[in-house]
Amino acid sequence: MADADHREQHNHGSGTFVGGDVHGGLWQVFLPPYGKKISGNPAPTKRQPEQDDDDEDDYEGVLGSLIVAVWIAASAGLAVVYAVMGRPWTDHEPPPGIAARIGGGIVALYAGLAAAAALFARLAQLFELWSEQCAVTATQSRGRLVARPPASMARALADLTAATAVAAELLASMYGWSSYGGEVSQRAHLARLNAAANANSARAATKRR
Fold first, then answer.
1. 3-state secondary structure 173-209
2. How many of the other CB atoms lie within 10 Å of CB of 65?
3. Rg (CA), the chain
4. For 127-150, how does the pLDDT look when each residue is reduced to its tens digit (9 = 90+)?
5. What number is the average pLDDT over the span 39-56?
6. d(CA 9, CA 1)
7. Local confidence band at 204 (pLDDT 50, 70, 90 cut-offs)
8. How many helices (H) and strands (E) does the chain have?
9. Is the CB of residue 60 less than 8 Å from the CB of residue 35?
């Protein structure tokens, strides 16, 4: 009988002591993962059938791609401002003519919107990765009370993912004639679906007995 009542304890590093085990979960909620998808999958059905390893590789270097998109969007925005104000790029150049200002401004605006679409799509992916980590923390927590904080954050991140994904899809629709627009739109759409699945998985963890 003593063996039946005995409960083995597993301690894996520092963390939160829950139900006889030590989990390093709660603090990880506030550290968004940069890089590839984490191994623990809280929602087995979240991955769509048409996805393959190429889609998984799309998450490699998300932070780096986000920084590049920010730089391109900021540079294009600065070029639009210079075109509107009619200022030369250097002090040794004469002010551009009206035709150059209009042409340069249109090209810079179009490039800036393309970079903004990529920026929002990558930001949606980053929020999705973060929501997945929160969902894993919630599902691994032994108790509804402990699972509620990461579950709440997973739901909030799902909303942020949806907002940024919609912005990316709207901007990408301007480039629907090219493969670039379709790629950005699909990236944002999948991030929105996956983040919603993460939120549902985390919510289920708070309702279990």
1. HHHCCCHHHHHHHHHHHHHHHHHHHHHHHHHHHCCCC
2. 18
3. 23
4. 999 999 999 888 887 777 788 888
5. 48
6. 18
7. confident
8. 6, 2
9. yes
Do 128 and 59 form a contact (C-beta atoms < 8 A)? no
Query: Tokens at residue 150, please?
Result: 């990461």
CB-CB neighbours of 36 under 10 Å:
14
In this structure, what DSSP letter does residue 22 have?
E
Comparing 97 with 53, which gets the higher pLDDT? 97
Closest listed residue to residue 108, CA positions, set 74, 79, 81: 79
Element at 80 (helix H, strand E):
helix 62-85
In tens, the pLDDT along 14-26 reads: 444 444 444 444 4
23: β partners: 16
Name the residue among 3, 18, 50, 36 with its Cα closest to residue 148: 18
Residue for token pair 């929501």: 131
Question: Rounded to whole angstroms, how far apart are CA atoms 185 and 16?
Answer: 39
Tokens of 57: 């590789």
Contact 206, 140 (CB under 8 A): no
**Contact yes or no for 135/158 (Cβ under 8 A):** no
**71 SS3 class:** helix
Tokens of 180: 């670039």
122 within 8 A of 183, measured Cβ to Cβ: no
Three-state secondary-structure class, residue 17: strand
Judge whether 140 and 195 are in contact, CB under 8 Å: no
Closest CA to 29 of 130, 129, 111, 125: 130
